[in-house]
Design goal:
The chain is an alpha+beta fold. The chain has four domains: 2-40; 63-293, Thrombin, subunit H (Beta Barrel), CATH 2.40.10.120; 296-389, Pdz3 Domain; 400-490, PDZ domain (Pdz3 Domain). The longest helix is centred in the first third of the chain and has 29 residues, at 2-30. It is flat and about 75 Å long.
Length: 492
């Protein structure tokens, strides 16, 4: 009986082995497309299986739609003008007064180089915010430019007019004569979160419409001497030429204007800063409507509150803006704010760091009322203050050319600080000397024209009038360094 069942048993084992071999062979074939590392990973039955949809959530984002849709509204900006050269001599030579005892020493080793103004060319980026040709960029991109050209992605080029520029925020508004232009969409930087992806489009080193990406590294950053702008910090690759270009969120909305980098080499090193777009749009509106930007002012000097100071003033924790000085006659002084007071809140907004206060103050219109929560004498106290107006910080106008056919110089009035330093009541600073009578008479950039034909000079228009009535000779009283001298000019 057993001998008859044996062949059937062997047959069953053979079939089972064949099935197992087929399954294992199929498994081995399926592993051919896997990396050795992946194939070597142990499999544990108790580990949850990760589905494909979950894997897609952790994949890198695709920026192609943002680049395609928003790229046409990003422009390349090229500028040209002239910049004043330094001390005539070898590159890097110090600027020196001709009366300096070392002046002749350095002069002996000078090499020929252009004097006066030399051509300047620059590149930057910008973006269109209005179909009729309003463009935003950085103020430093167009500063001192004689000519600004805006180039679109379709290769069209337009001469741009600088509507206005605000140095404090580093925002400039340009206008080109065109219609039905593509525009960007404006977002809300307040809604952005640290760690979110962001995209920059611009012209680094002149490579137009380059796209770079990264994340928001921090918000409300304050930079040295830039305390009025709460910068967005990113690790997006920003290089020379990116300045003025837009920073987009993943919804394709502009949340900032790429403005600065922190670098030892002049190139990208992972620290980039953008002006929040809400700050820039407020500047744009004021420049378009009024030609200047008005900002609120308290008239205080503030500093950070550390743990030792917090303990000294009886604060629960180091927070707020410590008032170290109050300007006499300022809005703060009139409201009773004193050195040693700590500003904890401004119009209900908590001041966690001293850097939080300046943007809130400057954002208010001059003359408006604000409520401050102060910490003084061991307790909190609310006061009201009428905000003043900050002195304008618009870019200085380019020097006016004073009748180049007769004098051949570019001059401008002295600033109050310059008048004080020179110890004069008035005068015109020579900023550029071209071909003409002034150059032949030895007038140099940096000279101060105090009088013309015995008449004290206070304005460019007055000098022009005196020149027009002078006939063939003009006597100028010039201040050079600490010395005053009369210079006679033979007019053409």
């Amino acid at each position: 009986m057993e001998s008859k069942k044996l062949p059937s048993r062997i047959k069953q084992l053979f079939v089972a082995a064949t099935i197992a071999t087929t399954l294992l062979g199929g498994y081995a074939y399926s592993q051919r497309d896997q990396s050795p590392a992946a194939a070597a990973l142990p499999v544990h039955q108790d580990e949850p299986v990760v589905n494909q949809s979950a894997r897609k959530l952790t994949a890198l984002p695709d920026f192609s739609e943002i680049a395609a849709q928003q790229g046409p509204a990003v422009v390349n900006i090229s500028v040209s003008g002239a910049v004043k050269t330094g001390f005539p001599g070898f590159p890097g030579a110090p600027r020196m007064d001709p009366d300096d005892p070392f002046y002749d020493f350095f002069k002996r080793f000078q090499v020929p180089q252009p004097q006066g103004n030399v051509p300047m060319h620059g590149l930057g980026s910008g973006f269109i915010v209005s179909p009729d040709g309003v463009v935003l960029t950085n103020a430093h991109v167009v500063a001192d430019a004689d000519e600004v050209t805006v180039k679109l992605t379709d290769k069209r080029e337009f001469k741009a007019k600088v509507i206005g520029q605000d140095k404090l925020s580093d925002v400039a508004v340009l206008k080109i004569e065109a219609k039905n232009l593509p525009t960007v969409r404006i977002g809300d930087p307040e809604q952005s979160r640290v760690g979110e992806w962001v995209v920059a489009i611009g012209s680094p080193f002149g490579f137009e419409n380059s796209v770079t990406a990264g994340i928001v590294s921090a918000k409300s950053r304050t930079l040295p001497d830039e305390g009025y702008v709460p910068f967005l910090q990113t690790d997006v690759a920003i290089n020379p030429g990116n300045s003025g270009g837009p920073l987009f969120n993943m919804s394709g909305e502009v949340i900032g204007i790429n403005s600065q980098i922190y670098s030892r080499s002049g190139g990208y090193q992972g620290l980039s800063f953008a002006i929040p777009i809400d700050v820039a749009m407020k500047v744009e509106r004021q420049l378009l409507d009024h030609g200047k930007v008005s900002r609120g002012r308290l008239g205080v000097t503030i500093q950070e509150v550390n743990q030792d100071l917090a303990d000294s003033f009886g604060l629960d924790k180091p927070a707020g803006a410590l008032v170290s000085a109050v300007e006499k006659g300022s809005p703060a002084a009139k409201a009773g704010i004193e050195p040693g007071n700590v500003i904890l809140k401004f119009n209900g907004k908590t001041i966690a760091r001293s850097a939080d206060l300046p943007p809130l103050v400057t954002d208010l219109a001059p003359g408006s009322a604000a409520t401050l929560t102060l910490w003084r004498k061991g307790k909190a106290e609310e006061i009201s203050v009428k905000v003043g107006e900050m002195k304008t910080t618009e870019a200085r106008n380019k020097p006016a050319d004073d009748d180049k056919g007769k004098l051949g110089v570019a001059v401008r009035p002295l600033t109050p600080d310059e008048r004080k330093q020179a110890d004069v009541d008035a005068g015109l600073l020579v900023e550029n000397v071209g071909d003409g009578p002034a150059a032949r008479a030895g007038i140099r950039p940096g000279d101060v024209i105090l009088s013309a034909n015995g008449e004290t000079v206070v304005s460019v228009e007055q000098l022009r009038s005196i020149v027009s009535k002078s006939g063939k000779r003009l006597a100028l009283l010039v201040l050079r360094g600490q010395n005053r001298m009369f210079v006679s000019l033979k007019l053409d």
